[in-house]
Amino acid sequence: MNQPLIELNHISKYFGKTMVLDDLNLSVKENEFITLLGPSGCGKTTTLRIIGGFEKPTEGTVFFEGQDITNLPANKRNLNTVFQKYALFTHMSIAENIAFGLKIKNKPKSYIDDKIKYALKLVNLDGFEKRSVSSLSGGQQQRIAIARAIVNEPKLLLLDEPLGALDLKLRQDMQYELIRLKNELGITFIYVTHDQEEALTMSDTIVVMNQGYIQQMGTPEDIYNEPENAFVADFIGDSNIIDGIMLEDKLVEILGVKFPCVDTGFGRNKPVDVVIRPEDVDLLEPGKGRLEGVVTHIIFKGVHYEMEVNAGGFEWLVHSTDCHPVGSKVSISVEPFDIQIMNKPESEDEEAIGVDE
Q: What is the pTM of this model?
């Protein structure tokens, strides 16, 4: 079996008495695009800074290609970091910015010149060598920051919310650029964001974090379609999260009505959380579904209509390409496969950790 590029073993981090990471374990394969995703304060940037050597863990060990690098300074690690604030040198030309790390390593001028040309071509900024940083747009500055990182040929590139300062269109363009660069260069990317759409678009693997714990780790499809707890379901995309009773295998009661599902092993008459994505709710003519309701709000989103439907005393969020005007009587149906059942956390600690008994 291939050795992981990065391994975090039992990492904990305290700032004073405040716990930021608690016994975190993470393994990253070579040439993987892995995203640390979560709300502010969840510990994702601290995790990145520990990997980069900008913070030391209070407890635990960091391995890089099997070597313990926990106490190795940032500048001795075979990795580079790109921050949200690009940290470009405004008094230098673009070529000088890109060459900075190579000059420190005493690389020959011909080598540096070749690398500058190569890096600018990779980030689609050929011929920008002599331009000043201040003449560039935000998206171009971000590309230069990435070019400066990749000329050093790091095995690992750490990106801390690098697209946060860009407008939506630029951000989307840069997402595709980063995917292309990762595929062309074969560099491993660890990416930090609180933007779920960004994570779903770019990642091979998503690590969802909250309150210093990993809630779930998996492919974007796994995270979206099979959330392991209510936090993940609520954080990744929109969800209807409803109290339910698991009557028996493959049968759940939602709002007093029995719905067939595909889940087993929860026992009988067990309180559970039921998660149903808005796009998985079918609105039928009255009497044709399982729950009767009334449309209370509607917004046209371009690709679909977003509706709120009051049914069974619960406000359902529904995404559909069919328009049902406010006041319409409808009936709700959900396919068994589209109903996700999860254990309810038995304590606040479990809720933070995302424990499934």
A: 0.87
Enumerate the β-bridge partners of residue 81.
158
Element (H, E) at 99: helix 94-104
The domain segmentation of the chain, as residue ranges, is: 6-225, 239-353
* 253 phi and psi angles, rounded to 5 deg: -100, 120
Instruction: Look at residue 357 in the predicted model and tell me its pLDDT.
Output: 35
Please say whether the beta carbons of 84 and 48 come within 8 A: no
Question: Would you call 227 helix, strand, or coil by DSSP?
Answer: coil
DSSP 340: E
> Which residues in 186-312 belong to E strands, given as ranges?
188-193, 205-210, 213-218, 240-248, 251-254, 257-260, 270-276, 282-284, 291-300, 305-311
Residue 210 CA to residue 123 CA, distance in Å, equals 33
DSSP category for residue 302: S
The whole-chain average pLDDT of the chain stands at 92
Q: Round to whole Å and give the CA distance between 197 and 162.
A: 15
CA distance 6 to 156: 9
Q: What is the CATH number of domain 239-353?
A: 2.40.50.140
Residue 33 C-alpha from the chain's centroid: 11
Q: Phi and psi dihedrals of 103, rounded to 5? A: -65, -40
Residue 355 has a pLDDT of 43
CB 150 within 8 A of CB 112: no
Any idea which of 17-21, 76-80, 122-126, 277-281 has the lowest mean pLDDT?
A: 122-126
Digit-coded pLDDT (tens) for 245-296: 999 999 999 999 999 999 999 999 999 999 999 999 999 999 999 999 999 9
pLDDT for 180-204, tens place per residue? 888 888 899 999 999 998 999 999 9
- Coil, helix or strand at residue 1: coil
- Specify the CATH superfamily of domain 6-225: P-loop containing nucleotide triphosphate hydrolases (3.40.50.300)
* Average pLDDT rounded to a whole number, residues 61-83: 94
